[in-house]
Amino acid sequence: MAPWIFLMFHSLLFLQSAPSSFAKFPYRHFPSSIIRPETPSLSSNNKIYKAKYFTQILDHFNYNPQSYQTFQQRYLINDTSWGGPKSKAPIFVYTGNEGNIEWFAENTGFMYDIAPKFKALLVFIEHRYYGKSIPYGGDRKKAYKNSKRLGYLSSTQALADYATLILDLKKNMTAMDSPVIVFGGSYGGMLAAWFRLKYPHVAIGALSSSAPILQFENITSQYSFNNIITQDFKSESENCYKVIKGSWKQIEDTASSHGGLELLQKSFHICKNYISGGYLEGWLETAFTYASMTDYPTPSDFLAPLPAFPVKQMCKAIDNPTLGNDTFAKLYHAANLYYNYTGDVKCFDLNDNSDPHDLGGWQWQACTEMIMPTGGSNEDSIFPVYTETYTGHSRYCEKTYKVQPRPTWITTEFGGHDIRRVLKHFGSNIIFFNGLRDPWSGGGVLKNISKSIIAIVEKEGAHHVDLRFATNEDPMWLRDVRKREISIMQAWISEYHQNLVDSDTF
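Above: the chain's sequence. Below: its structure in token form.
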């Protein structure tokens, strides 16, 4: 569900130099936006949840004195539907992503929608080093000061946080017999799946939505991400695809010509503080990428206020006959739909390094364990052709953090190679949802692994669309996806309760 990284982690998407001035960063972050989104319809002011804090240990895996330091980890809780411990009512836990937890709690409406049906307690746990869950006294500058302190930021530490907090919460609520199901989307979906595998005694199942757990170590092609974006636009309009594909050289040629940057600045309504050809290209690619990722069938304001089917709407803007052959006007109107759908923005700031969702820690994670090659583009790609390399990424991490990435660690810790064979032997009770319009689906689990590890794949689906609030405009396929997920989780809970009865009578 979370800015990506844009030119030396400046704001959103890219780092590494490509064959042209089109600079890229191949190891992508999960979605956010350089435009602060509209205030979500749900917030703590609406009493939808209560914020609480848990005293969490800094290092779960060592017994050095510094490991026993603690920090305050935030979690959000909603008990309005909970049936209580006496009825062994379930606890639904969201495994927080790389950002402040309110953002995810306010964009995971599926959990609120189904809580009354299950009489479930809802808990959203914030990931360490994000939001307000900051070690070293809650001081972000201290926590992010150097690699020695950032070294405690990892997926394994986060999963141990979740296990520790959940068990303590169940104990304090005298709810040790209440079954736990974990939920997550995007990186949070990866964490949910991994949590079920690593802590099966804590959670009876996991709903892992749009989780690219196979986007590591060349298990998935580096071209898959951009190929899916290409197909999303191409499926709407061949002309739209060709205009975007052919625009990059035109932008580069214009940027390098006399007066060209001034022309680009005027054409794209860029603020006068800064412009370059590379930044403009990254800004445009970000808009096309996020539109593809959040190509929802209903309006949304998850990343930025957007209409339903934003890819279709972008292509309508590009195909608008009144714009003639003015490529820059076509691109501007398409990008404006993503960055300025509400019409409030007067000019676009390419030098914006704001972080409204507290996502800065992902730079560290992308330099240590989350090595997810997704940047390559082939001849048919909507983006310029290039093949990414690991060298530039490694060099950046060494310079910035004095660390070398560990590209094989995730598959060593959680698996990934031969995933069907491996998980069939020891995994159970995981739902993997993927929408094929989501570029991250290329690294997702798209086939059933066993009777209880189920892949739900929807060709019209976008990034964790199943976790969004239900609306009256939802298409039937989306309603069916959610019904199936509910049915599977009901079966997990029924089996759990039956096993409790069996163990009591044994």
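Strands lie at 50-57, 70-78, 91-95, 121-125, 180-185, 205-209, 430-435, 453-458.
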